[in-house]
Write a structure and sequence with these properties.
alpha/beta; TIM Barrel; 8-stranded parallel beta barrel; two-stranded antiparallel ribbon; 14 helices; 10 strands; globular; binds D-allose; binds zinc ion; isomerase; manganese; metal-binding; L-rhamnose isomerase
C-alpha cells in the first residue's frame, strides 16, 4: 500500500491494548524501584491507561490481571472505564503467585491444587462476563526444575484437562489465548514452552482457543514472524503480548530492542489478513526504571510506527519481484518501506484525529503526572512490585 491516505485510514482502525500492570511498580528479582504517583487501585490504573488513549487515540482498552486488580464489582469497574473513555480488555489469570503453585498450577501433581487453579480460571471467565471482555489470557508458570521431578507426559494430560474445562465454560463470543514461554520460572521443562505446544492444545479444542505470541518468549534468533505467518494461515493467532527483549523475558518497551523485527512481524500480520480486531494487539511490559505512562505512550507509538511502515510495503511490487525470483528487488521493496520515516505521516494522522502530533510532549505538558504525584502519596496497588 503506497497511498498514504489509505495507510492513515488503516492506522485509525488499529487498537493497542495496554496492561494494568504496566502502571504499577515493578522490578527484577534484585530490586523494585518505587516511583512517585503510581496507582493504588485498579481504578487508578484505568485512569492512567485512559491518559495513554487520550494522547495516542489508539489505546482504547486496558487488560486486567486477576487478582492484582481485584474489586467487588467488575461490572461497575467496566462502567468506570467506559466513563473515562476506555474499556476493559483481556482478563489475565494469575495462577503463579500462591505458595500452593510451587510445583505447578493446572499441571500440579496434587489434584487439590489443580482444582484451585482451575477454579481461579473459571472465576476469571465470570469476570469476563461482567466486564464484557472477549479474551482470557492464560499464562502458566508450570514446569519442572529437575529431570525426573515429575512426569512430563502426565503434566500434558493435566493441562489438557484444565484447558478443556475452561473452553467448555467460555461463552460464544469469548476466547482463551494460550501463551507459551520457553523457560522461566521453571528451568528444566516448561509445560507450554513453545507455539507448537500451545497450537496443538488449541487445535484440539476448537476456534475459541487461540495462541498468543509474546514477543519476549522465544530463544534468541527465533524467527517470530514465521510463527505469526503460520498461525495466521491456520486461523490460530489470537493476539500478541508485545515487548522487547535482549536476553530473556525482559519485558522492555516494544520496538526498543529490535524495531526491524517488529516491522517484520507487522508485515506478516498485514499480509496474512490479521490486521483487524480479531487479533488482540496487547502490550505486556513493565517499566522498571522509566516513567510508566510515557513508557506506554512510547510503546504504542512504536507499534504504530512499525505498522505504518508495514502498511507502506508496496505489495504489488513485492509480489512481482518475488515471482520473478528477483531476490534483491524484493528485498529492496521491503527495505524501502522499513527505511521510510513515518513520523511525519503519524503526526499528520494525529492532527487529523484531533490529537497533538507529539503525544510524549503533550502528556508532559498536561500536568497529569504532577497531579497524580500529589494525589497518590500513600498506598500502593497489588502487582509485580507489591
Ligand atoms: C509471563 O511471562 C507472561 O508474559 C504473562 O503474559 C504474564 O501474565 C504477564 O507478564 C503479567 O503477569
Ligand atoms: Zn506475556
Ligand atoms: Zn512474559
Amino acid at each position: 500500500m503506497t497511498d498514504t491516505k489509505a495507510v492513515k485510514a488503516a492506522l485509525r482502525t488499529q487498537h493497542i491494548e495496554t496492561p494494568s500492570w504496566a502502571y504499577g511498580n515493578s522490578g527484577t528479582r534484585f530490586k523494585v524501584f518505587s516511583q512517585e504517583g503510581v496507582p493504588r487501585t485498579p481504578q487508578e490504573k484505568i485512569d492512567d491507561a485512559a491518559q495513554v488513549h487520550r494522547f495516542t487515540g489508539v489505546a482504547p482498552r486496558v487488560a486486567l490481571h486477576i487478582p492484582w486488580d481485584r474489586v467487588e464489582d467488575y461490572a461497575a469497574l467496566a462502567t468506570y472505564a467506559r466513563d473515562r473513555g476506555v474499556r476493559v480488555g483481556a482478563i489475565n489469570s494469575n495462577v503463579f503467585q500462591d505458595n500452593d503453585y510451587m510445583l505447578g498450577s493446572v499441571t500440579n501433581p496434587d489434584p487439590a491444587v489443580r482444582k484451585k487453579a482451575l477454579n481461579h480460571l473459571l472465576d476469571c471467565v465470570d469476570i469476563m462476563d461482567a466486564t464484557g471482555s472477549r479474551d482470557l489470557k492464560l499464562w502458566f508458570s508450570d514446569g519442572t526444575n529437575y529431570p525426573g521431578q515429575d512426569d512430563i507426559r502426565a503434566r500434558q494430560d493435566r493441562l489438557a484437562e484444565a484447558l478443556a474445562a475452561v473452553y467448555e465454560r467460555l461463552g460464544d463470543e469469548q476466547r482463551f489465548l494460550l501463551e507459551y514461554k520457553l523457560f522461566e520460572p521453571a528451568f528444566y521443562s516448561t509445560d507450554v514452552p513453545d507455539w507448537g505446544t500451545s497450537y496443538a492444545h488449541c487445535l484440539k479444542l476448537g476456534p475459541k482457543a487461540q495462541v498468543v505470541v509474546d514477543t519476549g518468549h522465544h530463544a534468541p534468533g527465533t524467527n517470530i514472524e514465521f510463527i505469526v505467518a503460520f498461525l495466521l494461515r491456520e486461523g490460530k493467532l489470537g493476539g500478541f503480548d508485545f515487548n522487547s527483549r535482549f536476553y530473556a523475558d525482559d519485558d522492555l518497551m516494544v520496538g526498543a530492542a529490535d524495531p526491524f523485527q517488529l516491522f517484520r512481524i507487522m508485515h506478516e500480520v498485514i499480509q496474512g489478513g490479521g490486521f483487524s480486531d480479531e487479533i488482540a494487539f496487547m502490550l505486556d511490559q513493565c517499566h522498571n526504571i522509566e516513567p510508566k505512562i510515557p513508557g506506554q505512550i512510547r510503546s504504542v507509538m512504536n507499534v504504530q510506527e512499525a505498522t505504518a511502515k508495514a502498511l507502506l510495503v508496496d505489495g504489488e511490487a513485492l509480489r512481482s519481484a518475488q515471482q520473478a525470483g528477483d531476490v534483491l528487488g524484493a528485498n529492496a521493496v521491503f527495505m524501502d518501506a522499513y527505511n521510510t520515516d513515518v513520523r511525519p505521516l503519524l503526526a499528520e494522522l494525529r492532527e487529523e484525529m484531533g490529537l497533538d502530533p507529539d503525544p510524549m510532549a503533550a502528556y508532559a505538558r498536561s500536568g497529569y503526572f504532577e497531579k497524580i504525584r500529589d494525589e497518590r502519596r500513600e498506598g500502593q496497588a497489588a502487582g509485580w512490585g507489591a
